[in-house]
Amino acid sequence: MSKFHRALALLPLLVSAGAYSQTTTLYAQNFNSPATTSCTAWGGAGSESSLSSDYNGSGQVGSATFMQVGTADRVCWNVALNTDPEGTATPYSGGFARNGATVESWGIAFDPQGKPFINGQLDLAHVTPGNLNGIAVPTNYPGTASSIQMGLRFFRIPSGSTFSLAPGAVTPIGSPANPANVVISGVTQTPLPESGLVNVTKDATYSRYAADWTTHQFSVDTSSFSAGDRVAIVGTVIDDLTYIVFDNLVITSDDIPAMPPSITKSFGAPQINLGQSTTLTINVTGNGISPINGLTITDNLPTPVVMGTGGVISNTCGGTPVAGLGSNQIQLTNGVLPAVGCQLQLEVQWPSAAAAQCSGSPVTNTIVDGTDFTVGSTITAGVNAQATLACPAPPVPPEVSVSCVPNAIVDAPGQISTCAITASASQSADLTVNLQPPVTNTRYTSTCQNTIVIPAGSTSANCTITATANTASGDGDVTANLSISAPSNPNDYTIGVSPAQVVIQNDDEFIGTTPQAVPTIGEWALILVSAIVALLGMSRFRRREI
């Protein structure tokens, strides 16, 4: 589909949608349907007609009257070479030239219909003229400059006035020409402030068939115009021995001025966790006038961000997007920028292998305007698109410890030690802790298994060690050990106090003293004791007699 026909398809959108809801298309001419379709010579030669006779009143959208100085006319392209900017087999463009004192110009006028701005766009190119319209092959071609100049002037035409074009003051051959003027009732009009010179890219191929097309857009402030006033647009070739071709002239009236294409980008979330994905959105604004060919976008994703499994989610920019899984580069070539703009959405990911880059500090993603973002040869806004994305630093894992209370019990009924597995901080999800439970022993039982779960929002979970009651003496004490094992995921927890021990004591041994025999004395010792007792008795008896 040609650029012109895409403009026609977008007219309902221009009228009803978005930032350009007040846009009215006044004129859209792709120069592909001249009144005279035969060409006296193909391959870049001009026809023997004129813009005014071929295109007056024949705009495919709207109608306008061409005026001209000299023999500005249509160019008949070689169909096989497709040098028309639309890339189609439609072989016509507008053309005008300067050859010494012969300076060609064209003009056309539009009523802004009460809107504060008239906006316009046209494709421009320079071609090697050969013997085009009597202009000999210039001996100084291509010269040292990379572009040649065209005058583009704007004039206010009061309501009810009739205007004509007049050549500018004559300059010496080889010197820049003066642009053509608008004359009303014999008075040369003053151009509006938006008037000036346009640089047109010089044909780099030295071929009379090839054209390095540049899309040029403009805006004219008409807010001070009265009802019925018109804007006249006048183009003039300035450089000597020069032929300029133009195509796809679109004129709109609008509430806002035409803006150069610009690009912005954003991530669906400011940060994502390790291994997660988000949406990258690239928005390109159109100029509100007409679609523009040649949109290219290169987005070099910042390390470690790569394309995710979702790939290209949506694309309204046309062309061919290339963004493979795991790639750190996105490319769009041969796109078409609609007047209302376009959007490219893709899935990107912070890969699981990039844990070292998860620090919470964002990485910056930049698309450089003019290098990574171009729209043919159209001048863009010059503002880089930038967005940031971060991967938060992993949370500090809690420290998990174990303790058992009491740490000593006896082998009697009801003797239980409660073991608490405690985390230093609660977690948002259940925390599974690996344990080394006590070894199996007949002296106790345990509810402590290989794992225990600390519920989300809690800091502890319990298990128990219970003594096996018995009355057997001599079976001694035993120790039950409970320890915390390494986590299955190193980021789950660290090990604090571990292990914990519980001693199961024997309480069945006899507690008391053995009776001791009364000591005896020998025979002579017994006689001696007896004698002493007898003497003591006699002594007491005598005292009584006295």
From TrEMBL:
<keyword id="KW-0812">Transmembrane</keyword>
<feature type="domain" description="DUF7933">
    <location>
        <begin position="261"/>
        <end position="350"/>
    </location>
</feature>
<dbReference type="InterPro" id="IPR057693">
    <property type="entry name" value="DUF7933"/>
</dbReference>
<keyword id="KW-0732">Signal</keyword>
<dbReference type="InterPro" id="IPR026442">
    <property type="entry name" value="IPTL_CTERM"/>
</dbReference>
<dbReference type="Pfam" id="PF25564">
    <property type="entry name" value="DUF7933"/>
</dbReference>
<feature type="transmembrane region" description="Helical">
    <location>
        <begin position="524"/>
        <end position="541"/>
    </location>
</feature>
<feature type="signal peptide">
    <location>
        <begin position="1"/>
        <end position="21"/>
    </location>
</feature>
<feature type="domain" description="IPTL-CTERM protein sorting">
    <location>
        <begin position="516"/>
        <end position="543"/>
    </location>
</feature>
<protein>
    <submittedName>
        <fullName>IPTL-CTERM sorting domain-containing protein</fullName>
    </submittedName>
</protein>
<keyword id="KW-0472">Membrane</keyword>
<keyword id="KW-1133">Transmembrane helix</keyword>
<dbReference type="InterPro" id="IPR038081">
    <property type="entry name" value="CalX-like_sf"/>
</dbReference>
<dbReference type="Pfam" id="PF18203">
    <property type="entry name" value="IPTL-CTERM"/>
</dbReference>
